[in-house]
Amino acid sequence: MTDHLIIGSGIAALRAAVALAGAGDVLMLTKAEPREGNTGYAQGGIAAAIGRDDSPSRHLADTLAAGDGLCDERAVAVLVAEGPRYVRELLAWGAAFDRGADGQPSLAIEGAHSVRRVLHAHDATGREIGRTLWTRVAPLRNVLVHPHARAVGLIVEGDRCAGARYVAEDGLVTSARANRTLLATGGAGQVYRETTNPPVATGDGIAIAYRAGAAVADLEFVQFHPTALNMPGQPRFLLSEALRGEGARLVNGAGDAFMARYDPVGDLAPRDRVSRAIAREAERTGAPVFLTLDRLDPAFVHARFPLISEACRRAGLDLARDLIPIGPAAHYVMGGVVTDLDGRTTLPGLYAAGEVACTGVHGANRLASNSLLEGLVFGARAGAAMRADAARDGWAFDATSASAMETAGESEREGRGRAAGTAGEALHADAVRDLMWQLVGLFRDARGLRDAIAQLEPLWRATCARLQDEAAPLDADGWRTASLVAVGRLIARAALRREESRGAHYRLDFPERDDVAWKRRIMEGRHGG
Length: 529
Ligand SMILES: Cc1cc2nc3c(=O)[nH]c(=O)nc-3n(C[C@H](O)[C@H](O)[C@H](O)COP(=O)(O)OP(=O)(O)OC[C@H]3O[C@@H](n4cnc5c(N)ncnc54)[C@H](O)[C@@H]3O)c2cc1C
Description:
single chain; 529 residues; FAD/NAD(P)-binding domain; Flavocytochrome C3, Chain A, domain 1; Methane Monooxygenase Hydroxylase, Chain G, domain 1; 3 domains; eight-stranded mixed sheet; 17 helices; 19 strands
């Protein structure tokens, strides 16, 4: 039995772990290598109102505008008011953000921000934040990190979460019992065939929380990033919006800058609008769409964007000189497991923070560079709440508990034997990802969504039956497919219900925003009613 179980090891998990320093034993389970996850891939930066011409209220206004009428304003107020404090804390802990000649962090501008407010470490901001947070977590004697441990279900006793079941490297299903459990499992981009997200981002946290009865919400809102590298056989490497912030332009095959024809804001319009414009322009011209940095100084381009330059070089392209073929790809899921302002979910004992959570800060569309900030602020708040709830529940605080450290990894082996799956499950995963891209992607309509749901429902029922069958436990592919099916089905169902277009959710058959009928959020899950 552990005091606190944290599932995941990205920005939200790490900041929560810092908040739990010395607060009983903490077991951190993570599915792959500890640094694998969306945080390590984040490029452009982290937004915070620290500039002289900026203020939390201005950041709030930009976030609400991007969220297209569906943000939870209380959650946004917390994000923007506390953001500067937590970002300054990172600076104090040694985060090497880029600085200007005056020694202050240099601030970039990205789409839909009204001022420069994005701190960055070249184009590898997430990696630098992860490095900084690990320097705080690694020395903590009460935190035990267990890599290659995939959480596959929650233990629910009575009406309370009492830990999680996970599959360790040996393939055995194991129980980690805990007084409090934090889901910090990140995103679900892998639900789509085209995605900027790494392989671990399969929405496991949403799937296991939903199966345990916690409420989920806003899952119809999936952000498609407009500019992922679009070359056959190459991963959909993200070409950060910061490129356009610095002056890169979108052009068609004939070299024409086309964005102004689709959107008065042009190249830096919100991501969903740019993504749809790119798809339409590609369809209109029957040719790919490109990003060009031809008006920028090549030396500046390579120095400012070393990671992206290198990815382009590996694909045989010069970022500064060549036309870079791009296309939209699933990037970020605005919805997730419903939480209050302190990470508490609707299932007692279960908390969630970061991309897996749905605090309501993003509404129908996320403002660029607000997600690292969300992980930082709400990760810290969830950790603090777990600590405070533990104290209130009568749990004895013991800052120097060596025994807690030793027992952190103790868990009860269920000994169900080695997991086994079928090749068919791996096939299902690809089929689901294709189906989601084609029918539940950038452009949606009732016919396509019904078709998608008709295909996903039997897979969902088969998965649920399979999870009950203890004689034939799943292998890694099987668990992956189970998450993709569960999350894909939830996205498709919510997308069918929302008969309007808003933020990142675009219905061809309901192209207008409809505040009268739909200025409300869609929730699913027993505890959500
Ligand atoms: C290419 C790219 C660029 C981005 N750029 C930016 C940016 O510039 N600014 C910005 O604000 N945001 C950006 N984002 C989004 C941002 O990176 C993420 O939203 C944020 O890092 C999520 O942090 P997290 O802690 O919630 O999850 P993650 O960092 O994804 O961590 C999740 C962790 O959970 C683990 N995990 C998953 N499932 C399980 C399981 N079943 N059992 C155990 N462990 C599990 C994973 O292995 C991982 O360690 C970007 C995302 C991508 C993909």
